[in-house]
Design brief:
8 helices; two-stranded antiparallel ribbon; 3-stranded antiparallel sheet; 3 domains; alpha+beta
Length: 314
């Protein structure tokens, strides 16, 4: 998760209904370099991350049939800070610009041919925090929003996450590899059963693994780009690594670290593993001997003597 940007294949954009699916469609057809774009016989000057054309072209990109629906999508995305757009009422010329766009690229620009990206070819770069705007806006996620949310939080070969060495794995916070359907439901404003149905529907992309006990589950991304061909681990491999981490957590109080032979596990990452403990108890020490406690009040007795038989309650 040290990388701020994540790759998304244009051949596999977010599935289902939702704003982020529409955003991905718009971004996948924008210009990748500055130049002059030809659309329907008209030449339009464009900048990187920009598209220029008409309402018919916009409906085609979004896969919508109604003009008002296409414009409403642009308005919603604009209000959330994803895009800006302009419609000339006289000429009916429409243009939009993607705000989250990588301007600088390490590769050499293609100076010949069309400046627009090719549909279904290559990949998009998007910030990992792009779906956080929906969370901050208290937005109720749709399927494509949840799909992209999981994709943006996928990690691979992360030294602070042992599970990411098995296969690209979803993690929302550092030091917290385990998820629960209730946690995702609160984030997306869904019921637990709807979260479960989502993973069943998109099991070809996101694979859910249940952990022993009450630790929750793991989610692996089957289509995430990594250095090699990603293969899903078996349930036995996941549980074996889980027990190793549990054992290491009991001895040194840490977890989610890549096992290394040349150093102690405690030196790799210092994260408390006991996330399921929600209560801590402290002693009153010397004052516990002098405390008068009943159902109405508690106070410190001035006498330094043991008040036996006077304490009520837990």
């Amino acid at each position: 998760m040290k990388f701020e940007w994540v790759k998304l294949l244009r051949s596999h954009l977010p599935e289902g209904k939702g704003l982020m699916g529409m955003w991905a469609r718009l971004a996948s057809r924008a210009a990748f370099r500055k130049g002059t774009a030809i659309y329907c016989g008209y030449a339009n000057a464009v900048e990187p991350g920009m598209w220029s054309g008409g309402i018919v072209g916009l409906k085609s990109i979004l896969g919508l049939k109604r003009r008002d629906r296409a414009l409403r999508v642009l308005e919603e995305l604009s209000n959330l800070g994803f895009v800006s757009y302009h419609l000339d009422e006289k000429t009916k010329k429409l243009s939009y610009t993607i705000f989250d766009w990588v301007i600088k690229c390490s590769g050499q620009e293609c100076m010949e041919g069309n400046v627009y990206t090719t549909d279904g070819y290559g990949f998009l770069c998007l910030p990992r925090t792009i779906t956080e705007r929906l969370v901050k806006a208290n937005y109720t996620f749709d399927e494509s929003d949840a799909w992209l949310d999981l994709w943006c939080h996928t990690v691979s070969n992360d030294p602070d996450d042992a599970f990411s060495f098995l296969s690209p794995h979803i993690r929302f916070r550092n030091g917290h590899s385990f998820l629960s359907l209730e946690t995702l439901g609160r984030r997306w404003h869904w019921e637990k059963t709807k979260v479960w149905r989502f993973f069943k529907k998109y099991s070809e992309t996101f694979s859910l693994y249940r952990l022993p006990g009450s630790y929750g589950c793991l989610v692996f991304n089957r289509l995430y780009l990594s250095n090699g061909a990603a293969s899903l681990p078996s349930q036995t491999e996941v549980e074996t690594l889980f027990r190793q981490i549990i054992g290491a957590g009991k001895t040194c109080g840490c977890a989610n670290a890549e096992p290394r032979k040349d150093c102690d596990l405690a030196t790799v990452i210092r994260v408390s593993f006991c996330g399921n403990i929600i209560r801590a108890y402290i002693s009153l020490c010397r004052y516990s001997k002098n405390c008068n406690y009943d159902c109405k009040s508690n106070y410190i007795s001035p006498k330094k003597e043991l008040m036996t038989g006077r304490i009520r309650g837990p």
